[in-house]
Each structure stands twice: as structure tokens, then as C-alpha cells.
Model the fold of this input.
Amino acid sequence: MNYNLSCYSAKTKLLLITISFLLFNSCHHNNKNMSKIFEFDPEVLTDNSITLNKIADEIVYVPFDTLIKIGSVYSYRLIDDFIYLSVKDVGILLYTRSGKFIKKIGNPGRGPGEYYHFMYFDVDPKSRYLYVIDRNIIKIYDSEGVYKNSVSINDQYLSYISYFNDKLIISDFNHYGISEYNWITLDTNGILIKKKENYIPPFKSTLPSHGGNYVFNNNLHYWNLYCDTIFSIRPDLSYTVSFIIKEGKFRWPKSNIKVAPTESFRSYLLNHLFISLILETKQFIILRYTYKNIMIVLLDKFSKKSYMTYLYNHEGSVELYGGILNDIDGGVPFKPEVYLYENEYEYLVELIYPYTIKKHIQSIDFKNSSPKYPEKKKDFQKLADNMKETDNPVLVLVRLKD
Done:
């Protein structure tokens, strides 16, 4: 049962969601892991505190070796025993799960088999073929990193790619209000299988959009700033509602904005909800967003409690500081970026840079910290002492409790 909720009234949306949930519940009443659909409203959250030790029981740090300098990382994937990184000005790099460099896949450029835009990619976990978004072209490389072929999508700007159930889901996030589709589905030869139309009427805006995909419970989830529905795409390519974002004046504006002379552009945007990340685990829906403050919110699916962690950046800097207090080993506060499920365990993952680690161990917070595992605090100190500020980043894997 598919509902396109973006253009309906709020009352109609809630009615459709209720019907959908009741029907789903009647057909799946034995599914103990089923989560209820709910509405996210940033204006009514309660500020409960949470620390890493309450949700996780282990942290693993994976430093990347220094054979190739890793600067800004656009995106990354953990596939079986491998880590793939898309690195600005460098290309897509392949590492072992212990952080050892294996090879570079393809090269940046405009020549045959090269990619110019390579921020987003995905990997077939079986064949390890890699699919790279290069504007409206998909570049394909085999498991050895050899260029195979390209697939062109005419007149469609490709924002994001997901390899899902042996197919390619190409997402668009309604940039500047002109998207024709939310997503399209292709086979791996580029043959169109299905389209999901964007039902939001076109509008003019000077603001960019944003959105993303995340995988949870064998479904691929889709969201964008202008759509109040977070969709859940099933393996058979049908879709349903995962949860919704409440309507309100705080929503990202669908118009050319005009800022009053007494109001700065930055303060105007701070009063509008800009979601930069959505993840999901068995227990939580996790959002990173800006609305009045920069924050991470963990929404407990069962208790309905919200756990808020405030982030901040120094003036003129794009780097965010803060995160979930790490009381396992006293390490850097944790800002989840990726969800991983493997070997029946759930993980949240983050990339951090050595200068952040070294700055943290010099802080009063670290020196005065009393984490649950004091011996792990010593191990974290050794990790910091054995690296330079200019070394490559460290992958942090946090294993969640059952």
C-alpha cells in the first residue's frame, strides 16, 4: 500500500498513516520488532541526557595508514572486510578493515573511465562492483578497480546512489524545487525499472535542498528537506511511510527568502529546520539537524523519550564539536554518521581526525574523566600519543547494546 503524502493536508496525512498502520498491524501482529509510525516535531522535544555507555558496550578505533594522504572525505562505505572512501581531490580509495591501503579505484578527471564528480557511490557486496555518481552519469568499476562502462541518465541530475537488492536506486532531493522524481530504479545495466514521482509542485528558491538514504531492517529509506514524509522502500520496490516531519513555520522554506534589514541570513536559517542526517537503529531514530541550535537527537521508538546533544562550531569553521559523551573510554564525544549491521550486531560509525583526538586528550574534560573502563582510557591515550596531528583519519566503530 503506497501513499504519496507530500501534497495532502495534515489531517488527511494522519488519517492515511493511521489506516496504513492499522492494516500493517493486523497483518503483522506477531512482529515484535515493529515500530510505530510517528511525527517528528522539533518544538516539543524533551531534553533528556544520555551517554555512550548507556547505549553501547564497545569502541574500536581503526587508523588509516599514511601511504596516501586523506584530506576531506565526502562519503564512505563499510562492505564486508573493506572500507571505501571518497576523498576530495584524490578519488575513491579502498582499505582493509584494519586500515591498510589496498588501491585507488579509478581517477579524477574528464577522460575515458575517469570521474569528475565522485562524492557519492555504492558497492555491490557480492561482486564488489562499484557504482559512482558523476553528475548524470554512473561510472562502473569491477572488483579489481578496472573501469567497465558508463550509464547515462538523460536530463536527470543524479544526487545520490544506493545499491539495493541487486538494483540501483538513484535519488534526487528536489534541489531548487525542480525535481521530477524522488527516486528512480535501474538494473545494473542502466535499464529503467521504476520511477517515484515528486508530487511537490515546482517552486523557485535560492536555497539548496538536502536529503539522503539510509538502510535499516532490509529497507532503504529516503528523505529530503522539502518532503514531510520519510519513505521506506521495500526489496520489491513498493514503499510506505516510515515517519513524518511535522508541518510548521520552522520548515525549510519553499521560496526565495527575503531577510529583514535587522536580521542576518544566518539567524534566519537558524529558525528553520535543516536536517543534515537521519539514521535508524532497532531502538532509535537519530537526526542531526540545525534548528535554533545544532544538535543530535536520539528518539527512542519504544519509550518515546528524546535525548538531545548540542553541537557547536567556532566562528569561521565548518567543523562541528561536541557529541554524545563518551564515558566508555573517555574519548572524543561521539557524532554518529553511518549505521552498520553485521554478524547480528548493530554499529554506529564516525570518522574523526587526529588533531581532534590530540586536542581532546589535552583537555580538562579528558584529564578529569572517569570512564567505565579506565584501562580503555589508557589505550585511547596511547592511540593519541602514537599519531601525528597530520595523520590520516581514524574510523570509530561503536557497537550498540542488544
